[in-house]
């Protein structure tokens, strides 16, 4: 009797696991489908007038200019630390004169875009997620719909477009500042003139280093904005939903950055 | 309203500076690749390019003057290398200039090195071909090094056998170094030779004074003088 009950409970457990697994899978496919709809609606609304230039400019200022200081400090430290950490290995090979070229290629190709995008996901992605979620929770989005304003166009399109266009600019600044940080790092141990450092930086940089890295930053920005807006726009009601949306926007935004980076590297390696 | 205008100016400055930085970066990379300079093209036919790639530097008198534009296999044994060279160096490169393939440093990229040619020769023209020097192939160098190493190995093993024999006292040199009796005998022999030569000298002196041999010895003296 006892054995039969035990057997029954094990079967129930397997059934419940299967049920939970299929629910997760269904939820995942549902989310993918909703996200695809969201992306399609973004492109539809993007080209359809009227255009919200003023809101776009305001968001670009908030997303771009207001993130500059954080990105600049991070980039400077990144360049400095990368130089200090790489130096001993190159000294071992007697190749410390390669330090500027090596650091510049690492920063421009990979570290600059990815680190800036992660910082951006942390600051801007979470901000967008929390802002849109609180608008949803306080029914501001519903109020917009009632008053005849297209909330998707006004809130979502402007923000995604701003993140898409502002992140590449921030990455350009980050690269330049990180290279300056590297110059500072090189001069901690040896004396190299800025002119020589500058020449060595551009000695190994190529268009195949700059353009793929620059193009992928548009996709990073788009992904971060898209994830932040999607999660915030579809947030659950209640104050709990706001925190959850902010958290999810950072986690999934960062994950998307790495996924896009992996795809970008694969595509770039096909052509170089 | 004022704040809004300030924000817009800030955004404009941000975008302009960012784009300016990007353009400056592109300009410097392009300048290195001779994009914004007047250039001319020359080519060379190599048998082996040793891993040279398009985009590698072309060096003339130790200065980077251009880049490798294109590398194409023309026949089963020849490779054509097209180079884009800075126009300002054209007057220094003569028709009989020679191109060779070298390495930038010990572990660096491959580069094309151009030797200027003789000053009496005419200057090079656009789309001209220059002679290619046969590059030193590392495989050949290693092969020769291997032969040298084999020879050195044989010599050292022979030397080891000789040294072993000497230590064991085998052979004349071995006996000389290691056999004390032989050394003593050799010493005695040298003393005997010395004594013998002294005795012989005395005999010869005596003979020269003897009236029987005096005439014979006198006859031999003019013959010695003639020699």
Write a concise synopsis of the structure shown:
The complex is a heterodimer of chains A (272) and B (227). Chain A is built from eight helices and no strands. By secondary structure, chain A is mainly alpha-helical.
Shape of chain B: elongated
Could you state the order of secondary-structure elements of chain A as H and E?
HHHHHHHH
Per DSSP E runs of 2 or more residues, the count of β-strands of chain A stands at 0
Largest sheet of chain B: 7 strands, mixed, barrel
The largest sheet of chain A, given as strand count, sense and whether it forms a barrel, is:
none
Task: Walk me through this protein's architecture.
The complex is a heterodimer of chains A (272) and B (227). In chain A, 89% of the residues lie in helices and 0% in strands. Chain A has 272 residues and is mostly helical. Chain A has one domain. The mean pLDDT of chain A is 88. Chain B is of the alpha/beta class and 227 residues long. Among the domains of chain B are: 32 residues; 98 residues. Chain B is built from five helices and seven strands; from the N terminus they run αβββββββαααα. The relative contact order of chain B is 0.08. At the A-B interface, α2, α5 and α7 of A face α1 of B.
Show the helix and strand layout.
The complex is a heterodimer of chains A (272) and B (227).
Chain A: H1 2-47, H2 53-92, H3 99-137, H4 140-146, H5 151-189, H6 194-204, H7 207-233, H8 239-271
Helix pairs in contact in A: 1-5, 2-3, 2-5, 3-5, 3-6, 3-7, 3-8, 5-7, 7-8
Chain B: H1 2-32, E1 39-46, E2 57-60, E3 63-73, E4 79-86, E5 98-103, E6 110-115, E7 128-132, H2 138-167, H3 171-178, H4 180-209, H5 211-226
Parallel strand pairs in B: 1-7, 2-6, 5-7
Antiparallel strand pairs in B: 1-4, 2-3, 3-4, 5-6
């Amino acid at each position: 009797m006892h054995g039969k009950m035990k057997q029954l409970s094990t079967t129930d457990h397997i059934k419940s696991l299967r049920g939970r697994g299929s629910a997760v899978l269904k939820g995942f496919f549902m989310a993918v489908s909703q996200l695809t709809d969201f992306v399609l609606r973004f492109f539809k609304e993007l080209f359809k007038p009227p255009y919200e230039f003023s809101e776009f400019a305001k968001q670009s200022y908030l997303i771009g200019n207001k993130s500059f200081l954080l990105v600049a400090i991070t980039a400077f430290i990144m360049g400095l630390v990368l130089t200090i950490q790489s130096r001993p290995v190159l000294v071992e090979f007697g190749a410390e004169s390669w330090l500027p070229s090596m650091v510049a290629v690492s920063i421009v190709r990979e570290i600059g875009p990815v680190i800036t995008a992660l910082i951006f996901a942390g600051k801007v992605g979470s901000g967008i997620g929390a802002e849109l979620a609180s608008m949803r929770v306080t029914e501001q989005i519903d109020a917009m719909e009632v008053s005849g304003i297209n909330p998707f166009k006004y809130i979502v399109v402007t923000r995604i477009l701003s993140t898409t266009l502002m992140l590449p600019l921030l990455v350009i600044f980050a690269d330049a500042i990180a290279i300056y940080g590297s110059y500072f790092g090189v001069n901690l141990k040896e004396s190299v003139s800025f002119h020589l450092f500058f020449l060595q930086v551009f000695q190994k940089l190529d268009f195949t280093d700059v353009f793929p890295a620059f193009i992928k930053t548009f996709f990073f920005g788009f992904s971060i904005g898209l994830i932040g807006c999607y999660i915030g726009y579809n947030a659950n009601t209640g104050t709990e939903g706001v925190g959850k949306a902010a958290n999810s926007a950072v986690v999934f935004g960062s994950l998307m950055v790495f996924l896009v980076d992996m795809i970008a590297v694969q595509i770039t390696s096909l052509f170089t | 309203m004022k704040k809004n205008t300030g924000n817009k100016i800030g955004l404009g400055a941000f975008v302009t500076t960012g784009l300016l930085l990007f353009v400056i970066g592109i300009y410097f990379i392009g300048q290195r690749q001779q994009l914004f300079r007047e250039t001319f093209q020359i080519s060379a036919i190599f048998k082996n390019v040793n891993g040279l790639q398009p985009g590698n530097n072309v060096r003339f008198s130790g200065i980077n003057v251009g880049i490798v534009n294109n590398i194409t296999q023309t026949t089963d044994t020849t490779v054509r290398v097209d180079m884009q060279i800075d126009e300002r160096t054209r007057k220094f490169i003569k028709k009989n200039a020679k191109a060779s393939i070298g390495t930038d440093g010990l572990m660096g990229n491959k580069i094309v090195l151009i030797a200027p040619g003789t000053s009496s020769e005419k200057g090079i023209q656009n789309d001209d071909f220059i002679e290619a020097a046969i590059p030193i192939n590392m495989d050949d160098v290693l092969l020769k090094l291997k032969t040298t190493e084999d020879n050195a190995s044989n010599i050292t093993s022979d030397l080891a056998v000789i040294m072993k024999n000497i230590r064991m006292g085998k052979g004349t040199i071995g006996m000389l170094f290691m056999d004390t009796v032989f050394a003593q005998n050799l010493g005695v022999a040298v003393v005997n030779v010395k004594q013998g030569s002294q005795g012989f000298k005395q005999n010869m002196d005596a003979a020269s004074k003897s009236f029987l041999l005096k005439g014979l010895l006198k006859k031999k003296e003019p013959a010695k003088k003639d020699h």
